[in-house]
Design brief:
Elements (H helix, E strand, L loop, with lengths): L2 E3 L16 E4 L6 E6 L3 E6 L5 E5 L1 E10 L6 E5 L10 E5 L6 E13 L19 E5 L2 E5 L2 H12 L2 E3 L15 H4 L1 H17 L2
Parallel strand pairs: 1-12
Antiparallel strand pairs: 2-3, 3-4, 4-5, 6-7, 6-9, 8-9, 10-11
Helix pairs in contact: 1-3
The structure holds zinc ion (ZN) (2 copies).
Length: about 200
């Protein structure tokens, strides 16, 4: 009998970029690379060709701040249109008297974008395909990194699965789609995961 104690919900998720890193496919050479992140930026680095990318995780807010030349009041108009946000100066209408005049576009940091979930086998920071990705009956089967892959194999091949101590509401296994947990598929999924474990890197 093999038994496994499940892990907390966020152990292996998009947030793994902040800890162990997410293994992803390099868009240039298709080799293995890693996505990491800190509070401000997300990074990609290819182990094969050395290709690197950085992305700002800050979410900005753009607004024209002005004093109306007609009615004399101070106002602020939010600029939602991404194309317009690039201009240093824009013509907008005063919200009080509606007269239009040029005003300076100011950028302020609003906060940090939170990491989205992994979707369709792609990580959410750069949209790169995960390195450990395969398909089972047309559905993506993937792991964020080697540790996650080992966890999935252990979890699915165990005879007994237990919740971690303290009974949290959601655990790591809640991320798994039903088709992976179904008894009739489990053995074949484990085989597929083991193949990824042996063939990659
Ligand atoms: Zn590369
Ligand atoms: Zn005005």
């Amino acid at each position: 009998m093999s038994r496994i104690i499940d892990k907390p919900y966020f152990t292996y998720s998009a947030y793994s970029a902040l800890t162990l890193g997410i293994q992803a496919k390099c868009p240039k050479c298709q080799g293995a690379g890693v996505v990491t992140a800190d509070r401000d930026n997300a990074f990609f680095r290819c182990h094969g060709c050395g290709h690197q990318m950085t992305r700002d995780r800050t979410v900005y807010r753009y607004a024209v701040h002005n004093q109306c030349r007609h009615c004399g009041r101070y106002y602020r108009v939010e600029i939602q249109d991404e194309a317009k946000q690039r201009f240093p100066v824009l013509h907008v209408a005063c919200p009080y008297c509606k007269s239009r005049m040029p005003g300076e576009v100011l950028r302020t940091a609003q906060g940090f974008s939170y990491a989205d979930e992994i979707r369709e086998g792609k990580e959410p920071y750069f949209g790169l395909e995960l390195w450990f990705l395969s398909y089972f009956q047309g559905k993506p089967v993937w792991a964020i990194n080697r540790e996650h892959l080992a966890y999935l194999i252990d979890y699915l091949s165990a005879d007994l699965r237990e919740k971690p101590f303290g009974l949290p509401k959601r655990t790591q296994a809640d991320h798994l789609p039903t088709f992976m947990k179904t008894a009739k598929n489990r053995e074949r999924i484990v085989k597929l995961l083991k193949k990824m474990q042996g063939g990659a890197d």
